[in-house]
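[Automated response] Your request has been received and processed.

Submitted sequence:
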Amino acid sequence: MSITEAFFISLFTEMFGVPLTIYFLSSFFGVPLSPDPMHGHLLAATLAILGLWNLEVGVLVVMVVSIVILLVAADLIIDGWRTVYHGEGRLVTTGLYAYVRHPQYLGIILGSIAFLVQWPTIPTLLMFPILVFAYYRLARREEKELTEKFGEEYLSYQKRVPMFVPRFLGRSTLEQ
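Generated structure:
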């Protein structure tokens, strides 16, 4: 949890505090940004600077995309928790767990991606791979415990269901 907290603290400190990323980009690299809410959406500002669309349209697109990703993330976390809770200690392989073994962690990662789309910052760009790696390691540790608890039943489930990326979205290097 502490890496997740660090990710969100760095994100919101920069979002509502000192806009360090905007300062670096505008001062050191000459990118025409100002520390206002519109330019704070760096993806939208970048696309506007590149002439792909105006800043207002870019902010709208960035907000809609990030909110949709956040809603999917929240659903994964809530539905995953609810399914495990109602499993009452049994191995859960239905619902979201029929598609991925760790829907809640996938939800946390997607939520982090949504914030990166909405407000990419230098600290969060640096923290994101660390966050993903930490949840991958946590998932691996939990899988060892589940193998000890459920034995062959879990091993069979593990072979059928990918770790984070559902099969209908393509194969993942993090599947096994």
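Summary generated for your ticket: Residues 172-176 have pLDDT under 50 and may be disordered. The radius of gyration is 19 Å.
If you did not submit this request, please reply to this message.
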